[in-house]
Amino acid sequence: MSANRPIVAVYPGSFDPVTLGHEDVVRRTLRFCDRLIVGVAENATQAKGQLFEVGERLELMAEVFGAQERVECVSFSGLLVDFAREAGARFIIRGLRAVSDFDYEFQMAQMNRELWRDVETIFLTPEVGYSFLSSSLVREVASLGGDVSAAVSPPVLERLRRRLPGLG
Ligand code: ADP
Questions:
Q1: Is residue 57 in contact with ligand 1, taking CB distance under 6 Å?
Q2: Residue 65 in domain
Q3: Which residues lie below 8 Å from residue 62, measured CB to CB, with a gap of 6+?
Q4: Which CATH number is 65's domain given?
Q5: Hey, CA dihedral for 78, 79, 82, 86, is it positive or negative?
Q6: Most exposed of 38, 65, 88, 100 (fewest Cβ within 10 Å)?
């Protein structure tokens, strides 16, 4: 390993919308990574219950991470390992909140290694207060008019309010 080679990682996900849990993972990653590419997966766009289009998710992420010059937010389609390789990243960052995340994450990490031997998946756990936080929970609670101000940054809250007038 070259001491001069920058460490580049990708952090893939749906980010519908980006939450304080995602922000926590990004902050932790920047402690050991030189550059982080946050990738919004377009494949999952048709997923049931989606709230924001990929473009809107990226706009929100630009607001949330805009001041972080080592963070870049882009969308991608196709295989994650292809996206990582093209981005010059050998590391995939994923968040692990609870045992319930483990099965899927473990399978995905093993499959990605099958697809590209050199890729490493790094799992990070968030601040305990964010362990129960997910984008789907934010969408669900917000769509029922519940307060999600402890779960997302102000620009995201603002956008949720515009999208869901019942939120107040
Ligand atoms: P995906 O559809 O790929 O799960 P998400 O946007 O829901 O996309 O999550 C992206 C990544 O961020 C996943 O690895 C997920 O486990 C992680 N993540 C989501 N919410 C949190 C959180 N509150 N704390 C830590 N990691 C999280």
A1: no
A2: yes
A3: 73
A4: 3.40.50.620
A5: positive
A6: 100
Q: How many CB atoms lie within 10 A of CB 69?
A: 8
Domain that holds residue 24: 8-131
Q: What is the largest CA-CA distance in the chain?
A: 54
Closest residue by Cα to atom 10, ligand 1, is 13
* Mean local confidence (pLDDT), 149-157: 97
pLDDT at 2 > cutoff 70:
no
CB of 21 shorter than 6 A to ligand 1 = yes
Q: How far is the CA of 2 from the centre of ligand 1 (A)?
A: 31
Instruction: Identify the band that residue 140 occupies on the pLDDT scale cut at 50, 70 and 90.
Output: very high
As given in the structure block, the two tokens for residue 5 are 């080679």
Q: What is the pLDDT of residue 47?
A: 63
Query: Measured between alpha carbons, how far apart are the two ends of the chain, in Å?
Result: 52
Residue 101 in contact with ligand 1 by CB distance below 6 A: yes
Alpha-helical (H) ranges within 10-92 are 20-29, 54-65, 80-86
Ligand 1 geometric centre to CA of 15 (Å): 8
